[in-house]
Write a structure and sequence with these properties.
This protein is mainly α. The protein has one domain. Strands 1-2 form a two-stranded antiparallel ribbon. Strand 1 and strand 2 form a beta hairpin. The longest helix has about 35 residues. It is globular, with a radius of gyration of 22 Å. The termini are far apart.
Length: about 425
């Protein structure tokens, strides 16, 4: 039996394949540590064979993606590190993660991605509820529900993405099919439950902020593009002023206190200090991609002992930029920051200037989530991570043709006279 190419690689016309592919990819990301190579091979099997179906359409013109591959390239260049074999293996894994994400960009539209996220996150959270456990959090010395993950923050991350995907399914893409509405309701409630029981302050706060942003954008998008620009500029200034005032008036400490945290973020500030000192030893190019947290090296061994990490693995500086500075130096930080800002600005600009751009509505919200979390997590730095996949998906979609007319086209259309009606 022959399968039409469109059923596999045509965005919007391949939902029967693409929704399960996204769902299974998210499950593989979530539990790659638990299922090992099987999960990773499943992920590759879902995306890489699509190149054979139609390599021109699936790969596209990769010269346009040079800025997207820049961070993966600097990771490859760091193989001269203190642990060359570790850096080489990790760099290959990261590169292939980027490649698969960009293949997904070519074969998925935003609606299909969203439905796949609802399905995948639903499966991930159900598995965690059924087979999860409580674990001592060494950062704040409390027991929290971590599900089937190794960290409550990862469970919280998936729950946050679940809420965003459910909101987008109903209020951005207007899904009205009873089966999907039912699934969205169940996954939304399950996401809220997991967010509550995991007690991750990072995940709760970021989820609330991003959902509030998405609701606010829904109001903003009822305005004309020119009015949106003024409101976004004014809103941006107001947010900065309120944020600065909150720091000086103690609002930050008050919010942290609600979650049982203090101004040291239960040890994170000390960890950041240690990371900054480590980065200062190799300020420009770092020690090499993933070449710091290596068993047998004195400094990571010391930090593992101080934070009671018996496994001597799966630990990091809890800050994307400090972690990058340690591994890839200021050059790596500059490349990563440029990529993040380009994604944010690119989707915000499309959101403001286009009459309607549902794709950028969703992807801008996801990008904001990743940026906020980047100050306390490293969601976009490691291979086989849902944050890395979504990060490069957001980047890749900026290279796609804008299907929505821009302001100029809208204005030209508005100035055209109505056609005369002729009676016969």
């Amino acid at each position: 039996m022959r399968i039409a190419k469109s059923a596999l690689i045509q965005p919007g016309g391949n939902m029967a394949y693409a929704v399960p592919a996204v769902a299974l990819s998210l499950f593989a990301f979530a539990y790659s540590l638990r299922f090992g190579q099987v999960a990773i091979l499943l992920y590759y099997a879902l995306w890489l064979p699509l190149i054979v179906v139609d390599y021109r359409k699936v790969l596209g013109n990769y010269n346009r993606y040079a800025w997207i591959y820049a961070f993966a390239a600097i990771a490859f260049l760091s193989v001269w590190s203190a642990a060359p074999s570790v850096s080489m293996r990790a760099a290959i894994q990261y590169f292939t993660q980027v490649l698969c994400a960009l293949i997904a960009v070519r074969v998925l539209d935003a609606r299909t991605l969203t439905l796949g996220m609802v399905a995948g996150i639903g499966i991930v959270l159900v598995y965690s509820v059924l087979f999860g456990h409580y674990e001592l959090d060494v950062m704040d010395n409390t027991y929290s529900f971590v599900g089937a993950f190794a960290s409550k923050n990862q469970l919280g991350f998936y729950a946050s993405l679940g809420l965003i995907a459910c909101y987008a399914t109903v209020f951005i893409f207007g899904e009205r099919r009873p089966s999907w509405l039912g699934a969205t309701g169940v996954v939304g409630l399950l996401s809220a439950y997991c967010l509550m029981v995991c007690q991750s302050a990072t995940s709760v706060l970021t989820a609330v902020v991003v959902l509030a942003l998405m609701v606010g954008l829904r109001v903003v998008l009822t305005l004309t593009p020119d009015q949106r620009k003024l409101l976004v500029i004014g809103g941006g200034v107001a947010v900065i002023v309120l944020a600065v005032a909150g720091v000086y008036l103690g609002a930050v400490d008050a919010v942290l206190g609600i979650f049982g945290k203090d101004s040291t973020l239960t040890g994170r500030t000390y960890l950041w200090q240690q990371g900054i000192e480590a980065a200062a030893d190799n300020p420009y190019f770092g020690v090499g991609y993933q070449a710091y947290w290596v068993q047998g090296f004195s400094e990571p061994e010391r930090l593992w002992e101080e934070f009671f990490i018996g496994s001597r693995s799966g630990f990091h500086f809890h800050n994307t930029y400090i972690e990058t500075a340690v591994e890839l130096g200021l050059v790596g930080v500059a490349i990563l920051a440029f990529t993040l800002l380009k994604i944010l600005w690119g989707h915000l600009r499309r959101l403001i200037e286009d009459i309607r751009n549902d794709e950028s509505y969703l992807l801008f919200a996801i990008a904001v989530l990743l940026v906020i979390r980047s100050f306390v997590e490293i969601d976009i730095l490691t291979p086989y991570n849902v944050g890395t996949f979504l990060f490069y998906f957001c980047a890749g979609k900026l290279m796609s043709v804008r299907r929505q007319p821009d302001v100029a086209a809208w204005a030209r259309q508005a100035r055209q006279p109505e056609p005369l009606m002729h009676s016969h």
